[in-house]
Description:
Order of helices and strands: HHHHH
Structural class: mainly alpha
Number of helices: 5
Helix content: 55-70%
Largest sheet: none
Shape: globular
Number of domains: 1
Amino acid sequence: MDTLTRDEVFEIVGELDDAILLDLIATGATYGELLEACTWLSSDDAMGEILEHPPQGRVAELCDILSRMDWPDERD
């Protein structure tokens, strides 16, 4: 499992603050974990109901970091 790169973060979430970028990479998370965290943040409560648990581990950490971002209403 390879940890995230700057380009991978930008590919998934777009341009973002350097501090948040560094925090995301410092988690040691993978591309898939970041993708999962973004899915959790963009979904409604139905995802938690389906999986019967909230985000866990690194995905939860990524969600916490990403929740500090100002997300645009629509992503390109």
